[in-house]
Design brief:
The protein has eight helices and four strands. The longest helix has 19 residues, at about 140-160. The protein has one domain (about 5-75, about 120-205): NADH Oxidase (3-Layer(aba) Sandwich), CATH 3.40.109.10. Helices cover about 40% and strands about 15% of the residues.
Length: about 220
Amino acid sequence: MKVSEAILSRRSMRVFTPEPVSEEAVRRILDVAKRAASNTNCQPWHLYVTMGAARQRLSAAIFEAIEAKEPPTAEYHIHRHPIPEPYRGRQVTLGKALYGMLGIPKGDGEGMARQTKRNFLFFDAPVGMILTMDRRHGEGQWIDCGSFLASVMLMAREEGLHTCPQAAFANYHKVLRRELSIPDNEIVLCGIALGYADEAVMPNTLTTERAPLEDWVTWFRA
């Protein structure tokens, strides 16, 4: 698979099949993804990989916290509010398309809440990963972790697998710390669902638009 093919075929899947993913495949993905660029080769990321019963226990623990009304408390701003334009418009367009495919009408708070909870099942993917970073680093190392995350997602495509990066997991970092023994010096960035996705079912058929180059590239030619 060409790099361009991996990029163009990568989508955030929200329906995964129960087909298992071997640890060997996960190791191949991570062994290449670790070559991601990082400032001064710092490699500031840490990854917690859950599979099988361990993944199910983690999901169950988060659901217990939700049922107990444990407040979600991310340690960073996933989005700053209010979200300015044109970014808010893009977010709204995605929401309408996604929830439309799921048959969840506008104003259906219960339906939206049910779909949000599916994040914490890793959308039924057999592999659930949690990405963290040592909080003693600076803002520059967030760039490094983004580079690593992208490398994981693209290498998954080479293996015939799909992913979904999930910032929602940051909201339950306290549960993740209890279940995965994540130390306090690490900040929880996101979850990553990994598995085989049925690309023909909704909402996996959703392909989001991207802004044209004219909207976000400034050229200097002379």
